[in-house]
Structure formats: C-alpha cells, structure tokens
Specification:
By secondary structure, this protein is an all-alpha fold. The protein has helices at residues 8-17, 40-55, 60-77, 80-94, 100-119. It contains 5 helices and no strands. Helix 2 (40-55) packs antiparallel against helix 3 and helix 2 runs antiparallel to helix 5 (100-119).
C-alpha cells in the first residue's frame, strides 16, 4: 500500500480492493473524503522509534527499513529536510555507498525534532 495515505476514502478503497470479491460490499457505498492528519503524539512516537533504531548500530536491513519509514513519516509531516535525508540514505544503500555520515545526520535531525516537540 503506498504511504502515506492521507485520505480516508483512498484508505477505504485500498483495503476493500484487497478483499476477496465475495467479501466486498455490494452496490454503492458512501466514501468520506476526510483528510487524515497525523497527530503530534504519533509523530513523536515515530521520531522516538527512529532514534531507538539509529542508536542500536543498525544493520543493513535496519537501514533499508529506516529509509522507507523515515520517508513516509517525513512526507506525512511535510518535513522536506528529513525526507531529503531519507532519500540520501536510500540512494547510498542502493549504490552500496558508505552510510555513516548520512546516518549521523539523520540521527541529529531526529534528535532536533524530538527536542522541538518536547519544548512545545
């Protein structure tokens, strides 16, 4: 499923499209066009999770997971700087390039966001 899903109707359609045909609702159904906005607590939890994974000497598979997860979280939060850091990590991993500097930068960005949220 492409992430982030920011619209309830899109989410509903994605879920229903994966059900077996005999389990899908028959006939028209109301689709609510409500925008999904992640809450600040979810964002903080995501940042804390990212910080935890980064602090544990992440393996290559952890880095691949982080690149994808951070991209999704950053896109949801409209955080272009963090999204660029995630893209750099994705590029480095796909090219088998060193990731130490990128991971350190990402860890710093995540710590900044955790500190900012703590102040608010």
């Amino acid at each position: 499923m492409p992430k982030p899903l920011t619209n309830l109707a899109q989410f509903q359609e994605q879920i229903l499209s994966h059900l077996p045909k005999d389990r899908r609702p028959n006939g028209p159904r109301m689709l609510t066009n409500i925008e999904i906005v992640p809450g600040p607590l979810a964002y903080r939890d995501d940042m804390a999770h990212i910080a935890d994974v980064l602090s544990e000497n992440p393996s290559n598979s952890d880095l691949d997971y982080l690149a994808q997860f951070v991209t999704t979280v950053a896109r949801s939060a409209q955080d272009d700087i963090l999204q660029q850091a995630a893209a750099s990590l994705t590029d480095a991993r796909s090219g088998k390039a060193p990731t130490g500097t990128i991971v350190a930068r990402m860890a710093g960005l995540v710590q900044e966001r955790l500190a900012q949220r703590a102040v608010v």
